[in-house]
Amino acid sequence: MSLSKAEEQIMEQIWQHENVFLKDLIEALPDPKPASTTVITLLKRMQEKGFVAYNLYGNSRQYYALVAKTEYFSSHLNGLIRNFFNNSAAQFGTFFARDTNLTARDLEELRRIIDAEISKKKGE
Question: Which SS3 state, helix, strand or coil, does residue 26 take?
C-alpha cells in the first residue's frame, strides 16, 4: 500500500523524529502549515493503512512509524521496476545511468557500491 504525497510528507517527519506528538509534527512541517484537523485525518488514514501507530499519554498521542523508511522506499522502487521497466533491474539501471543527471563521480561511486554488492553475493 502506498501513501499520498501529503501522507509521505508527514511520514518523513515521523521517520526523522521517531516518536512525535501532533503539535511537534505540525511545527516540523513546512509552511504553509496544514490545519491540525487535516493532519489528524491523514494520521488516521495512515494508521488504517498500517504505517503509523501511537502511544497515549493523557490526552496526547505520540506517533511512531510501523514501517521503516528503507522498507517503504524499497517497496516503491521495486514497484517502479516491475511496472515501468518490465521487472528488469537492468532496464532500470540503464535508464538511471543514462537518463538522469548523474555525474561521472556519481556513476563511479555507484560502480563501487555495485562491485561491493557483487562480491558479497558471490561470497554467500
Answer: helix
d(CA 106, CA 111): 9
Tell the burial category of 20 from Cβ atoms under 10 Å away from its Cβ (0-12, 13-18, 19+).
buried
Residues 6 or more apart in contact with residue 14 via CB below 8 angstroms: 20, 25, 52, 63, 64, 65
At 78-99, the pLDDT tens digits run 888 899 899 898 888 888 888 8
At 34-58, the pLDDT tens digits run 999 999 999 999 999 999 999 999 9
Q: Which DSSP symbol is given to 87?
A: T
Residue pair 54/45 in contact by the 8 Å Cβ criterion: no
Q: How far is it, in rounded angstroms, from Cα 90 to Cα 81?
A: 9
End-to-end CA distance of the chain: 32
Full-model pTM? 0.75
